[in-house]
Amino acid sequence: MDTEFLQTMLLTFKLASITTVLLLFIGIPLGYFLSQTSSRFKPIIEAIVSMPLVLPPSVLGFYLLLAFSPKNGFGAWLDTNFDLRLVFSFEGLVLASILFSLPFMVHPIQSGFSTLGKSLKEASFVLGKSRLQTLWFVLLPNIRPSLLTASVITFAHTVGEFGVVLMIGGNIAGETKVASIAIYDEVESLNYSLANQYAFTLFVISFAILLFVYAVNKSMMRSEFR
Amino acid sequence: MIHIIITKPLHTADGTIDLRVNKEIHKGDFLTLFGKSGSGKTTLLRIIAGLETPKSGTITVDGEVWFDSEKKINLSPQKRNVGFVFQDYALFANMSVRQNLEFALADKSKSKKVDEILGIMEIQNLSNMKPQELSGGQKQRVAVARTLMTNPKMLLLDEPLSALDSAMRLKLQDELHAIHKRFGITSILVTHDISEVFRLCNRVFKISLGEITEDSTPSKVFSNQNISGKFKIVGEVLSIKKSDILYIVEVLANNEIVKVTGVQSDIKNLNIGDKILLSSKAFNPILTKI
Questions:
Q1: Contact A122/B93, CB-based, under 8 Å?
Q2: Is residue B224 predicted with pLDDT exceeding 70?
């Protein structure tokens, strides 16, 4: 296997891992908030979170490209104040992936929290435990299957991302060139065997990940609800 | 001494009604909140625990202000130190029975207390089991045990026995009675079950559409309505058999099977599984101590 192939695969999984970890920190509070609130802003927040599900990735990528471009206000501000360029950089890809995979993390966590009876939370409060203690020791352990599903689906979805990456990341080897882009690239240059190598690897890995989720969730369910 | 003066709008199936309470509850009382669904019993219990906020009023417990709408005081449930037994028991499925009790401890070094309470409730043998492995009666005991871990000022019981069969109910009623006696803990019970009230409580609030319409001992609250000289028992039809010109209906009432004869017109609309009322007038019940 050539080094570029390895480099690209490594970058793909690095992007997916970082995105998943960061999204866990965003998804847990956001999912918890959405499952508890009866605020009239809830539908608006839910709609925004779900937008990436229906939006063509290129639309999101296009607007992010405009926003991050150093020629425009926000991008210029980032450039001058933080020396940060989000266009055609790995950092920009992480940020775009977080936005694009947000619903895949938030939805399972939110529905996990919603299925827990509210008496569980209240029982913990009455026993003198704070919100944070309740979340950490009672609520999160009881939605483990949802957390696992959310993380793995987010990871897998980030691995398979194409449109956003193409728009905002481009095709810089070792910096923004991920597997899905590489396939397109190799096909463009009629290099079918390398394209197949990428494609088949993604195919196998995606299947293995999903198989793992369903197998583990099944055994978790069995031990929790005997 | 608990002093409650509160109002709270309730949204029920019959529209919005106001829950109004102005009562004192004495230390060591075993009080029942009795009334139909939607009358505000559970809401009152939740207001005392701090799980719901009244619209206006005050709640004072042993001189300590828990709620005062004018002074904007509202003690969080964490600071009230009440024991609350939920209808679904609310046991933490990720923890064993022992861990459920340990979780309630503020100071983890006092784990001796866990063994003490497990012993009192006679559930040492369940210590390492997970809640989902327990029967309904066992879950209920664990839920009560867990509330006792914090030495609560009062015990709030929201229909704790409603999901159990009648034999288990009787047993657990005795246990609740014993706990109340042992700890002298002020207890408030929400129930639909008149026999439960008689067995456990020294005082009853009868609540109807958010108002406390009666406040007295169980015998005073329930006796005057039943002096009809009639016996009434609710039962369920198990089978209907024809015997000559009569029908013999087997009825399950209070866990016993009773055979009752009926004529064609009695059984016309009767199906197996129907709830029925058995009543009898002008007969002489015999009292026998068992």
A1: no
A2: no
CATH class assigned to A3-224: mainly alpha
CATH number of the domain residue B146 falls in? 3.40.50.300
Q: How far is B36 from chain A (nearest CA, A)?
A: 22
Tell me the whole-structure pTM to 2 decimals: 0.79
**Confidence band (pLDDT; 50, 70, 90) for A209?**
confident
Spatial CB neighbours of B192, under 8 Å, sequence gap ≥ 6: B34, B159, B162
Where does the pLDDT of residue A177 fall: very low under 50, low under 70, confident under 90, or very high at 90 and above?
Answer: confident
Counting the structural domains of chain B, the total is: 2
- Distance in angstroms (rounded) separating the CA atoms of residues B77 and B71: 18
Please answer whether residues B92 and A138 qualify as being in contact, where contact means their C-beta atoms are separated by less than 8 angstroms.
Answer: yes
The answer to whether position B97 is within a domain reads yes
Taking the C-alpha atoms of residue B35 and residue B41, their distance in angstroms, rounded to an integer, is 7
- For residue B110, what are the domain limits? 2-226
Query: In angstroms, what separates the C-alpha of A110 from chain B's closest C-alpha?
Result: 19
B24 and B168 belong to one structural domain = yes
Residue B289 located in a structural domain? no
Cβ of residue B224 closer than 8 Å to a chain A Cβ: no
Q: Tell me what ipTM this predicted complex has.
A: 0.78
**Chain A contact set for B92 (CB, 8 A):** 120, 123-124, 138, 142
- The structure tokens 């919005």 sit at B16
Cβ distance of A126 and B92 shorter than 8 Å:
no
pLDDT surpasses 60 at B229 = no
